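Q: I have 267 residues here and want to know how they pack in 3D. Can you give me a structure?
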Amino acid sequence: MRIDILTLIPNAFATVFDESILGAARRQGLIDIRVHSFREFGEGRHLTVDDAPFGGGPGMVLKPGPLVTALRRLRQDGPPAPVVGLTPQGTTFTQATAKELARLERVILVCGRYEGFDERILAEFDLQLSIGDYVLTGGEFPAMVVVDAVSRMIPGTVGRAESVQEDSFYDGTLDHPQFTRPATWEGRTIPGVLLDGHHAKITDWRRGEALWRTAAQRPDLFRRLPLTPRDRTLLQGALRTAPAPADSPAPAFSPARRRGGQASSPV
């Protein structure tokens, strides 16, 4: 798969795609990530790509001419590809979106900056994506998030397919609890089912815990799950063994307790 990133700050991506799983996938030819600057398409002696907003206001807005010229040139350099603009008004990026994008031969990501895109640029986008309701300085970090999530869906990027399929959100649920050695640490012991070697029971326990964790921590996700009768049975089992509320430490910080509205993200 080929992923092109159009940005004003190409150096932001200097090494991030060369490490760990993504780096190995690039070296194996599974992913072709290309970063392009649209600064060279800027106007005038100073290669200007932004200007003050009409009507006044703080900050600068990306001009349509330089970015659209760069984007149209990039479209012609390779097979047809959807253009994804990283914007605050975009659809929230989810695991389902990552799966869909991973099926494509090529994707073009466009990173915003400053106060955002001139509205006339948006007509060039086939899709707009946002990674959440918070403020970032530009679209470079969201582009990294999209590339990482999409790349994991490409066969061979992650060594074992099970590692991907058991991740949080892959099937709409959060991941089940994970434990490693030692079995007992500071008086806390892992669930006995993980020690008896019965793989079918372990699979059932993990599914039940994933459902319970999703119901408790992300009820918005849980409401969308198509539960089977087996799922309901496993969830009931997880509920019977769940710790009492008093056994769980209270969170040190709860965003829900803060006053005020959510800030929109420029990405």
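Q: Anything worth noting?
A: The helical segments are 20-27, 64-76, 95-102, 140-152, 161-165, 199-217, 219-222, 229-241. The chain has two domains: 2-153, 168-241.
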